[in-house]
Amino acid sequence: MDGPLESENSDILLKSELIEILRNSKSIEGPTTKYILNTTVLTEGKLLKRERIGQKKDKPRKIILMVGETGTGKSTLINAMINYSMGVRWEHKMWLEVTEIPEDQTESQTKAVTVYEVNALDSPFDLTVIDTPGFGDTEVFDKDKRVSEALQQLFKSEDGIREIHAVCLVLNATDVRLHERQRYILDEILSLFGKDIEKHILLLFTHQEKKNLPKRIMNFLKESFTKYVKNDENVCFLFDNCQSEYSDEEDRDTYKTSWDNGVENFSKFFDHLNNINPKSLHITEVVLRARKQLDASVGNLRDRIELAELKKKELEQTKTALDTLENYKKEQNNFQYEVDEPYKEAVPINAPWWKWSKRATRCEVCKENCHYPGCWWVRDLSWCSVMEEGKCTVCTGRCDYTKHVKDSNIYVPKTRKVTKTKYDLKKKYEEDVGEKRSLMIKLEKDIQQIEAEKIRLVEECYQCFDKLMETALKSTSISSFIHIDFIIEKVKETGNQERVQKLEELKKRAIEENRGLVEGIYIYTQMMI
């Protein structure tokens, strides 16, 4: 093969391991040869895939997570990082890519969370790069929820990632201002992590040619970003993302400065990374799980409260019927009354076009929806976000995952008109042994039990929400805020004024922190319900 693989066509020799990698990769010839690396695919799914570059060696490993808005140049930056770690320099007249970068980058090129295990040739440590789809894509907001689903899958899998060295937030230096779109994206990114990750967040600015921090970036850090991450040790690295742009021989020299700056900046970045101790992802995994359980619990709670209220209505109709009897202990064989009897029916999901989730996990024993919307990526239901140790954390019976199904149906509470007789009353409410109780007293007891069950359900939902508020790095993001009105309403019904006040204060703080986004929040809320 002609080109950079031959030593006479390169100013410096390539390492034999890299030559072998390049021989098995797709090449696009030119003054600068582009190689699309043929990675070893370890696992591949709809939400998550893992790939390996090079042969695994006995070296320390650093793990970084790359997150950012669509269009920041995150994919190009990852490619540049891989070029540096594999020892590629300007003199080699080549450029490596793990994925081809098309000219139109208005939409995220990364559709799944991708883990690259880079067995570096020119670094004291190997590198694991977790690449996430760009936030705030031209698709709807609901797509961003897939990232948290995939990360939870990655963190909790048997061979998953348990610790991380840095969360790298990629920002475009030419658009560093906290406008409403960027605030939404920043909120959603930070809301994925636990509070203990705060000091492990690094800022990587792309499209920045100057070596020193320009004034606009300094202002962004001082006036905006520190409101989100209370870290006095914000570490910034600047990259210009130009190394891959040249194509003509006469243009090569003009990009040498860009290459030299890139090597210098990556050297600083890798030196800093080398001195970072890993941080456990336990709390972050708790946050991701709590966020999924909150969504599932609120959806399940809405259905169960609706059904409880329907049952209460049926009992009150029965009580009213009894009130009409002058003496219900006498034989009145012709006594009949009509009630609205509640029941549940599995019906096809009729989701609007923007919903990415058209499937639900539901319990066939409890006849409840345990995870909807948001359940579509798992094949084995024991991996569903609401399952812990094989048991459901949402349905009434906490049933085993084997009692659940995942399909395109959901349970919907309904009522039907039913005519009942005095025999039905006696069969349901009179005991066969001991002293017979008044039917009226038993009815009132059932109504009280339903109210107690509603209070218990609200308590479960509140505890899940409270856990998220305590552990999440960004607790007042849109994805948390969408449930707060519903929770406040139900807590008010329980009469716990202290909790109501706490939630109202949280809502007030969320509105203040998301000023300018309130309209978008309520639009998003309606989309999620």
Can you put this structure into words, describing what you see?
By secondary structure, the protein is an alpha/beta fold. Helices cover 37% and strands 20% of the residues. The strands form 6 sheets. An 8-stranded mixed β-sheet has the order 3-4-7-8-5-10-11-12, with helices on both faces. A 3-stranded mixed β-sheet has the order 1-2-6. The chain has a 3-stranded antiparallel β-sheet with strand order 16-15-19. Strand 15 and strand 16 form a beta hairpin. The radius of gyration is 29 Å and the shape is elongated. The two termini are 58 Å apart.
Give the name of the CATH architecture of the largest domain: 3-Layer(aba) Sandwich
Q: Care to count the β-strands?
A: 20
Number of helices: 13
Question: Going by CATH, what is the homologous superfamily of the largest domain?
Answer: P-loop containing nucleotide triphosphate hydrolases
Distance between the termini: 58 Å
Low-pLDDT sequence parts: 7-11, 104-108, 431-436, 518-529
Please tell me the overall pLDDT: 77
The name of the CATH topology of the largest domain is Rossmann fold
Major sheet: order of its strands? 3-4-7-8-5-10-11-12
The computed structural class is alpha/beta
Classified by CATH, the class of the largest domain is Alpha Beta
Beta-strand portion reads 15-25%
Rg (CA only):
29 Å
Report the helical percentage.
Answer: 25-40%
Taken together, the total number of domains comes to: 2
The geometry reads as: elongated
Largest sheet, strands/sense/barrel? 8 strands, mixed
Coiled coil: 291-328, 426-460
Domain AIG1-type G: 59-291
Protein name: AIG1-type G domain-containing protein
Pfam family, one: AIG1
